[in-house]
Amino acid sequence: MEAVPRMPMIWLDLKEAGEFAFNAAVKKSAVSVPRDFEGCSTLRKYLGQLHFLQSRIPMGAGQDAAVPVTWTEIFSGKAVTHEDIKYEQACVLYNLGALHSMLGAMDKRVSEEGMKVSCTHFQCAAGAFTYLRDHFPHSYSVDMSHQILSLNINLMLGQAQECLLEKSMLDNRKSFLVARISAQVVDYYKEACRALENSETASLLGKIQKDWKKLVQMKIYYFAAVAHLHMGKQAEEQQKFGERVIYFQSALDKLNEAIKLAKGQPETVQEALRFTMDVIGGKYNSAKKDNDFIYHEAVPALDTLQSVKGAPLVKALPVNPTDPAVTGPDIFAKLVPMAAHEASSLYSEEKAKLLRDVMAKIEAKNEVLDQFMDSMQLDPETVDNLDMYNHIPPVLMEKCAALSVRPDTVRNLVQSMQVLSGVFTDVEASLKEIRDLLEEDEAQEQKLQELLGRVPPAPGSPPGLAEVSKECSKYLELHEKASFTNTELHRAMNLHLGNLRLLSGPLEQVRAALPTPSLSEDDKQVLQNLKRILAKVQEMRDQRMSLEQQLREMIQKDDITTSLVTTDRSEMKKLFEEQLRKYDQLKVYLEQNLAAQENVLKALTDANVKYAAVRKGLAEVEHKWNTTVQTLVASYEAYEDLMKKSQEGKDFYTDLEAKAAKLLERARAACQASQAHRQQLLERELKKQPPPRPTAPKPPLQKKGLELEPGGPEATDLGSLGLPDLPEELRSLPPELLPGPLAQLPP
């Protein structure tokens, strides 16, 4: 897999700058940066100097020194203006992330160094977008909204992890580690895909959303296939041959899904998919063959095996706008006391620490909740799915509607098969008659040769029987092969005929044919209770997200720089404590929300235990319902094929019938000629016999109903009757083989 062609990466366009009343030379160098690492360095320096400036001069929104700042919004191309220096910082930060994404995507990643550089660029891009999301308002423009920035972060982290995966495969790391790295790529892309599927995000992105979504969805299945491929390799190393088969089969299934989603993707993607298909397909076929013929291990169900947990080995590299090693010397150092700036930075760190502590608790609880819900496999929307049984599914309605305008469907099929059966019977009768004629002729020939010895054919003997026999064998072989096909065709017709009659009938009968669940009042109560608790789980999730968002926004807007300038240095700690108390109420609400999770999950566990039996019954009914629908649809789709094959069979047998009829005529003529030829041989043999001589009295002459006693009147010499005396070897011949008058002897 280390030689697999590389997948394309997503990168972001840079924003274009407009009006900002700042030094023109500085402004130009900051917004027209080269698309290389030097451009990233320039943006970081400019960002740092803007940070130093805004900490000293009141250029924020609504402040005395605020000036208009204009930048172009990426997705719409519209100019957006705010009188806030933080808007300038936010746009520069966005461009920093976009430029890193562009540089990461530009490299072909064919070398180890290229993979490392791309991975670093994507992590830097994620860091820029994370800092922008966590430290700036989200209302400046659409391309810097919370949803878009979160999407960008997950895309960049996913692509960084993807580079790391390529490097791991190149280094031939252990299969289990490669599987975990690949699984984490899937996790990052799943988060990005959820954002892309969000209707609000889709409306913000515009036409680019579809392209990104297609690529990300394809990558999800592709890297899931890579993960299961390496899990199969690990099973192979552990000699777990049954597990190896199911992992390789799962990898093949997921890769096929990726191939379906890859339509329209560039040739590099197609090459990667073809290469991976060769690897996985070969692995699966070999593993299945070995297990079927050598190891005979039971192949477990995939869901019984432990899921592959991702290993996040990349992170958003943090942005520090005050790092002198990056920003260079502070050109505004003399404008504002540095102490105020340092105190503001310390307070920002206190806020960041508070946010990190709260987020650590939230993420821990969310992880437990997600794992619990995944293990339960409970979806509030489809926990009972009873509504679907009240309607005929659209795919079935479509087939019923199609048959309603073709009322003769069933009759036409039956008639077509009846005609085919008739022609089939006629051909079989003709071939049987030919075979009987040939067998009868062969029997007569055998009798003659037993009496006379093997007689070589005399000149003019009929040659046609051999050709007739050869053609008859050929036709019998064709008939035998077609007979099997004909039987299969009748079996298929009988299989689908009832379903076609059902689909052609009233819709009420179709609906009645579909299975429906039968729930008792207790079952319904269990369902209602489960749905109620699931709603509580969702309510808890929503409240948690809302409180987290409020906390982030509150921290974002919390700027005490003005207070810090007028506060004595010795009072800074006390001021921090007073200012941080404003977050206590939100923290209490969050703690209550997190504490409630344990009780909610306990109630859900109890409800799920009671739901188990109902769930099993509903699952069985749903399976039967789906199977019935699929069977009816398959019968409809088989109709045209049955009609086509029936017509082909009819055409085949009509042609064979004509040939068999001609062959029958030839067989009759050839048999008659053969019979005449045998009579000629007999007559010639009789003529060769010497004249009768007086002999001693002979025993009685036996000849099929004719008995001559010696000395009696019947013992008259045959010559006196005008008939030749029979030689010894001809006396047992049946009369139909005797020539001329001898065949007319009286019984």
Strand and helix layout:
Layout: E1 17-20, H1 24-31, H2 37-54, E2 69-72, E3 79-82, H3 85-106, H4 112-135, H5 146-170, H6 175-197, H7 199-205, H8 208-237, H9 241-261, H10 267-295, H11 324-327, H12 338-376, H13 394-404, H14 409-452, H15 464-504, H16 507-513, H17 521-557, H18 561-565, H19 572-580, H20 584-687, E4 701-703, E5 706-708
Antiparallel strand pairs: 1-2, 2-3, 4-5
Helix pairs in contact: 1-2, 2-3, 3-4, 4-5, 5-6, 6-8, 8-9, 9-10, 12-17, 12-20, 14-15, 14-20, 15-20, 17-20
Estimated radius of gyration? 46 Å
CATH class of the domain at 1-172: Mainly Alpha
Largest sheet: 3 strands, antiparallel
User: What's the total count of β strands?
Assistant: 5
Q: What class, by secondary structure content?
A: mainly alpha
The H/E string reads: EHHEEHHHHHHHHHHHHHHHHHHEE
Count of DSSP helices?
Answer: 20
Q: Describe the strand arrangement of the main beta sheet, using strand numbers.
A: 1-2-3
Query: Could you say what the CATH architecture of the domain at 1-172 is?
Result: Alpha Horseshoe
> What is the helix content?
55-70%
Head-to-tail CA distance between termini: 95 Å
CATH superfamily of the domain at 1-172: alix/aip1 like domains
Which fold does the CATH topology of the domain at 1-172 refer to? Serine Threonine Protein Phosphatase 5, Tetratricopeptide repeat
Globular, elongated, flat, extended or rod-shaped: what is the shape?
elongated
> What fraction strand?
under 5%
Uncertain runs with pLDDT below 50, 5 residues or more? 701-724, 739-747
Mean pLDDT level: 81
Protein name: PTN23 phosphatase
Biased composition (Pro residues): 689-700
Coiled coil: 424-454, 530-557
Biased composition (Low complexity): 732-747
